[in-house]
Amino acid sequence: MDWRPNLMVLLCQIPGGQVKSVLHLGRRSTSGHRGSIVRDVENALDATVGDPGQEIRDSRSPSSGVNATLRILDLMAARGPLSLADLTRELGLAKSTAHRICGVLVERAWAVRDADGRYALGIRALRLGSHSTELPIVTAFRTVAAAFLDELDETIALAVVDGDESLYIAMEETSQPVRYVTHIGSKSPAFAAASGRVVLASQPPEAVAALFSGRPLITPTGHRIGGMPELREILESVRLQGVAENWDETARGLYAASVPIGNDAGVTIAALTTLVPRSRVTPERRETIVSCLREQGVRLSELVGWLPAYSARGSTAL
Question: CA-CA distance, 271 to 276, in Å (whole number)?
Answer without folding.
Answer: 16
